[in-house]
Amino acid sequence: MTYETILYEKDGPIAFVTLNRPDKLNALSAELQLEVREALEDAGCHDDAIRVIVLKAAGRAFSAGFDITAGADNHAVARRARFLKGKGFSASAWWDVFWNNPKPIIAQIQGFCIAGGLATATFCDLRICAEDAKFGAPEIRTGGPYIPAVWPWVVGMSKARELLYTGNLIDAQEAKRLDLVNQVVPAAALDEAVLRQAHTIAKLPAATVEYNKKLINMSYELMGIRQVIDRSMELEAATLASTGASPEIDEFNEIRAEQGLKAALSWSAERFEAEDAWFRGDRKRR
Q1: Residue 96 shares a structural domain with residue 218
Q2: Whole-angstrom Cα distance, residue 183 to residue 192?
Q3: Can you give the pTM of this predicted structure?
Q4: H helices present in the chain, as ranges
Q5: Which CATH number goes with the domain that contains 175?
Q6: Alpha helix (H) residue ranges in 42-156
Q7: To 5 degrees, how large is the angle CA 5–CA 102–CA 116?
Q8: How far apart are CA 17 and CA 4, in angstroms?
Q9: Cα atoms found within 13 Å of the Cα of residue 237, Cβ hemisphere only
């Protein structure tokens, strides 16, 4: 298969799937998701020589999240779900690609790993990041729900509430403290650290690793994580239908329609910068 938005390579027992839209900060377009799915299915289900899969990204960021540049509305998740359904996939198909893959997937992270990019990394089995990595769900500040909201299982309920109620970002060291990532290394050592971990796993019996992944997944499914994945988009639709748009979402979309996405994101960032300035003592901002 010829890929347009990813790079797919194999080196001995390791397969490398590289998000390759660096000019878009590796935003997850529907086309990219389909190509990642194809590559992961090949490495995970059709090539017995592969023992470990590395998901990485070209450029200065792992991923800025789902691509919201395709339309004027702010509901990229719903658009993605419709696209996947049209291809014969369920709404949760993107997460299933990682969760159900029989082989361990290591996310190699640098720069921004936010929004849908962070959700994607969270569904990988292990995460190793560079010291410059930033994590969070800033999309909630412009009306985008965090789908699926699995953070309570990963970082705990209190921290999940804080991050999902504020849209604040955290750095690599805080991510390590919260067990959101397994390892933090200097940027220059990131490739080596990931390869070392991948080769260690590759030396184990493949059947043992596959069994252990299924066992861990099953323990979380018994705690209800599968229901969260499957019902998250239903919850989003119901919430939007019952509450309608907010003034902030309306203004964000208006600016985006008139001035472009970059201007809308700048407007959103300035709102919170002004809030921070107010708490530092500059209470004349309003």
Answers
A1: yes
A2: 12
A3: 0.86
A4: 30-41, 76-86, 93-99, 116-122, 151-155, 157-166, 172-177, 190-202, 206-222, 225-243, 247-259, 261-279
A5: 3.90.226.10
A6: 76-86, 93-99, 116-122, 151-155
A7: 40
A8: 12
A9: 11
CA distance 110 to 133: 5
pLDDT digits (tens, 9 = 90+) for 237-281: 555 555 555 777 778 778 877 887 678 778 877 888 766 665 556
Cis? peptide before 152, omega within 30° of 0: no
CA angle 5/11/16 to nearest 5° reads 30
Q: Tell me the per-residue pLDDT of 154-165, one tens digit each, with 9 for 90 and over.
A: 999 999 999 988
Same domain, 238 and 251: no
192 shares a domain with 249: no
Count: domains in the chain:
2
Tell me: the pLDDT tens digits for 219-233? 999 998 888 877 776
Is the alpha carbon torsion for 78, 83, 88, 94 positive or negative? negative
For 178, the token pair is 């919260």
Inter-residue contact 130 to 110 (CB < 8 Å): yes
Rounded distance between C-alpha atoms, residue 217 and residue 95, angstroms: 13
